[in-house]
Design a protein that fits this description.
The chain is of the alpha/beta class. Helix content is 46%, strand content 13%. It has nine helices and five strands; from the N terminus they run ααβαβααβααβαβα. It has a five-stranded parallel β-sheet, with helices on both faces. The longest helix is centred in the middle third of the chain and has 16 residues. The chain is globular and about 50 Å long.
Length: 208
């Protein structure tokens, strides 16, 4: 059992900000620019612990993930973006290390389940808040399925992953009770209008 000294209490209180800054840095290295993003974040019903962001290459899956994580960070939700997705075990291990060793500055090791239990017991304002684990560009259907089938709701956590469009139907069909599917398509007229306005342009000024 981990005792609560004053430093640990401070780190707990600052966990959302610490993880948010780390996530923003990772998104920045991936090329995400929130000031240029005109799309709204994807919807994510509370009843679904897993969000699949699906689309063909180049449609903006990573940017939709970035918009979602930026929105959650601004709401002081605890989020982490795991960069490695070679296996489900690697994702779970790296997510636990991110939160426990980087976020809370602990030197020991804990599984993600143990981290979840620790936070559930000790984060005073945890009611209604969930930890969000994000993974970008999961190409392997077996890795995606193994991640989706973890006990996220039981752990007080959620999972969001981006996947190619061709994987999304198979994954949703097999685990529809836990998955909400968000398909990224073309920019809407409203998206394009917002983009033009941000750049000081109007439709009437565009060449025919």
């Amino acid at each position: 059992n981990v005792g609560l000294n004053p430093d640990r209490i401070v780190r707990l209180e600052q966990l959302a900000e610490t993880m948010g800054e780390r996530t923003r840095n990772r998104l920045d290295r991936m090329g995400y620019r929130p000031e240029c993003d005109v799309r709204n974040p994807p919807d994510w019903p509370d009843s679904k612990p897993v969000l699949l962001i699906a689309g063909t290459s180049g449609m903006g899956k990573t940017w939709q993930l970035g918009r979602l994580l930026e929105t959650l960070t601004q709401s002081r939700e605890i989020v982490t973006l795991v960069l490695s997705h070679s296996s489900a075990e690697t994702v779970l291990k790296e997510a636990a290390q991110d939160i426990w060793q980087i976020g809370l500055d602990e030197t020991s090791e804990k599984t993600l389940i143990a981290v979840a239990r620790f936070l559930c017991e000790l984060v005073s304002n945890a009611e209604g808040r969930k930890i969000t684990i994000a993974v970008d560009d999961v190409q392997d259907v077996d890795v995606a399925r193994a991640l989706i089938r973890q006990d996220w709701a039981e752990w007080g956590m959620r999972l969001v992953i981006t996947v190619p469009l061709e994987l999304s139907g198979t994954l949703k069909l097999a685990d529809s009770e836990r998955i909400h599917l968000h398909q990224v398509g073309d920019f809407s007229i409203n998206d394009l209008d917002c983009l033009l306005r941000r750049n000081g342009k109007r439709w009437t000024e565009l060449p025919p």
